[in-house]
Design goal:
alpha+beta; five-stranded antiparallel β-sheet; three-stranded antiparallel β-sheet
Length: about 220
């Protein structure tokens, strides 16, 4: 499996609040994580870094992630621990209250692929040169789309499209969404923050990913 990641500050903010990692354990299993510190909150980059560091440390400590059920429980338990770490950091550091982050993670083994997400960072699978979104964003606008109050087209440029309904560090308890990819015939996967999906269309991202130089 070929793996790589890229992060960029972009043109909107003065500093980068994203943290990313791709790790492989001795069993040949992969953990991929993207965490996007919450813009407008202090120390968003601390929250995202705490998330990636915690998951990375726990993953490398284990020889194998185990079964699919084991992987789901592992993700749920560690996300709960990270949420507490972020809340504790905010309490212990006066200038960091309100810090938070989104997170999307994928565990890839020979037997299964599962995504886990909180917030509006996204997970995709690539099949036959087409991207298919697996995760669902925890945003107000997506909630309105699901309820039938907005169309997907109206949601694209809605003034409140970045309002999050869930994030790590936003509440004492947080419920993680798990997505099981049943069809294992995908060609590749993509994890990204909303910084990518807000700036580029799916077709533009596909064009880059299908560039022969990346193969």
């Amino acid at each position: 499996m070929k793996a790589f990641y890229l992060t960029d500050t972009g043109r909107v903010r003065e500093h980068n609040e994203d943290s990313v990692t791709i790790l492989k354990n001795i069993s040949g299993e992969y953990l991929c994580v993207v965490a996007d510190g919450m813009g407008g909150h202090r120390k968003g980059e601390v929250a995202s870094a705490l998330t990636v560091a915690h998951l990375g440390k726990r993953f490398t400590e284990s020889a194998s992630i185990g079964t699919k059920i084991d992987a789901v429980n592992w993700l749920s338990d560690n996300i709960a621990e990270i949420n507490k770490e972020i809340l504790d950091y905010g309490e212990e550091n006066e200038n960091s209250k309100g810090l938070g982050t989104t997170v999307v993670a994928a565990i890839v083994t020979k037997e299964f692929l599962i995504f886990a997400s909180i917030g509006d960072s996204s997970g995709y699978v690539m099949k036959n040169k087409k991207l298919h979104r697996v995760t669902k964003p925890h945003t107000l606008v997506n909630l309105l789309v699901d309820a039938g109050d907005l169309t997907p087209e109206q949601a694209l440029n809605h003034p409140k499209k970045n309002v999050l309904m869930k994030a790590l560090g936003a509440a004492n308890t947080v419920e993680l969404d798990i997505f099981d990819v049943v069809d294992m015939t995908f060609d590749s996967i993509l994890l990204c923050s909303d910084g990518l999906t807000n700036m580029l269309t799916k077709e533009q991202i596909e064009k880059v990913l299908n560039d022969p130089e990346l193969e």
